[in-house]
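Cross-check.
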Amino acid sequence: MDVVTSYLELCLRLGRHIDGLVDAYYGPPEIAERIDAEELGEPSSLAGDASALLESLDGAGFGESRRRWLRAQVVGLETVALRLAGDEIAFEDEVERCYGVRPEWTPEDAFAEAHRELDEVLPGAGSLADRYQAWREGDGLEGDELASVFQGLADDFRSRTDAMLGLPDGESVEVDYVSDEPWAAFNYYLGSLRSRIAVNTDVAATPTFVVELVAHEAYPGHHTEHAWKEQLRVREGDELEEAAVMIGTPAALVSEGIAGLAQEILLGDEEQEVTAAHLGGTSVAYDPDLSHAAQEARRPLGHVGVNAALLMHTRGASTAAAVEYYMRWGLTSRQRAEQSVRFITDPVWRSYVTTYTDGYDLCRDFVDGDPARFKRLLTEQLTPADLR
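Predicted model, tokenized:
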């Protein structure tokens, strides 16, 4: 049994059932062509394939870290297949099997404290939710100004990333501006060290959010990770399993942790100064001190989504109750809360909400401010268990 080929086949076969499960594939094209030409396999059969693959790993002759990484990935994919086949899996078990971290409830006292701090720093006379939404979604970049600032930040962050962490020769990013999409931006990794980043122009983007997007999607976030792993693990290390970038696996949680930490590791205390410099000549107002204070105060609110998912999937809360929970504790509009609840009720994607906060927390603690340890995240096959 060629374990790596079997792993890639499993990834691609599952991907035919779930649009987006294969986030990127740049492995041998003949494998993808063969899988595309097959009849669609039954999920129960794919779960059996995953089980057989797990049994074969110990005798495959891999080093310990590679074997451990593959085992964690296959457990995640087996779980996806079992769910597709109709197996009932408790939400916490599903999350732990797919992403390597068991979700935990965040006490609402943490949200209440964040609300108190935000109430002190956000200007205006309306409700806290109204003032928070105005800060988060108000005066934003649009059209040519958005494109100019986004490109300027991408060029700047690329230079900073190269100086701090290095970049493989020949990597590149292209940016497209799109509309009518459910996300703010998305990294399409194309292989050959290239990414296409699609930026949604439907909603004006605040300067703080644009900085976050560039770091998260490009430098030193998703694109940087994928390019380094293609160069070192696939091209130089012949570890072809990395050529299938999969949702529903522990690698996805680590990847979101890398992207969530990217801005912090690259800019540190300079974030507001850098943002202000790139806004020169635009029509958008920006208050660096307010931005810093509000960002620090709101950080615990990132855990509201996990609590909402636990409310629904472990405590039996209704959709309406989850929407109200998002609005109350996340300070979101009803529209944004409803969009968030649709995400956490999707039968396939419901567990992904945990990757953002748990991935960030694990990667932040592992890196502890050290760029050399962040470089390890970008280049090594590390599981959540390794980071702990």
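The chain has a mean pLDDT of 95. The radius of gyration is 21 Å. Passed to J.P. for a second look.
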